[in-house]
Amino acid sequence: MSRIQATFDALKQQNRRALIPFFTAGDPHPSLTVPLMHAMVVAGADVIELGVPFSDPMADGPTIQRASERALKQGMSLRGVLNLVSEFRQQDNRTPVVLMGYGNPIEAMGWDAFAQRCAEVGVDGVLTVDFPPEESHDAFEHLQRHGIDPIFLLAPTTEDARVEQVAKLARGYVYYVSLKGVTGAGNLDLSAIEQKLPQLRKHIKLPIGVGFGIRDAVTAQAVAKLCDGVVVGSRIVQEIENSNDATVIANVSALVNELRLAINQA
Q: Taking the complete model, does pTM exceed 0.90, yes or no?
């Protein structure tokens, strides 16, 4: 059983929802990435989505774009991200880690080499934003061969045929993008999420995490009542951006703990 499945199974038995924070590896500095990961776990994170910085993102809003730019200036690369996961695993062999990014760096490394290295360092899942299910079969085979869960995005505009494809390929959990647009944009329409998720569950048996636009504890709690996991990215990256090296771990820990407590009350 994968770490992701074990985590969601345990949460289900406890009638709890997963908190899935996202931040960009290497931001604000590579030396702070692993300490931030450990701090998030202590503060209540169940799964960590670790962003692989990329120069030409499509789904990321300006906050996460700036984080990628800062990380790239620090010399962060895909291989560097994988090395950081390996360092994290020296102390934590329980918390699932999902890499979230774009296809170009993986294509440059080669999918088989990438999947093999993911397995070696302890990556549990990979979400490639610009790889729709129609284009993911080769990548899926490499990930599956090495026991890595391929994770897919669904959106409010996703048609049933695409949902069925994702249901066949996805492992771990499915990430539902709760609004049209980029990360950190717009205001959530909770009623729209409430209407959409039952439609998705007709096809998808995996846990469903909801992200994009969740910016505070109140919203996180409301979303947690509708799904299996709450993904918070831009708000955490914003906290990192607004902190300095001396305060960033304490500030992010406080934010994650606030979100954890709110989700627990859902």
A: yes
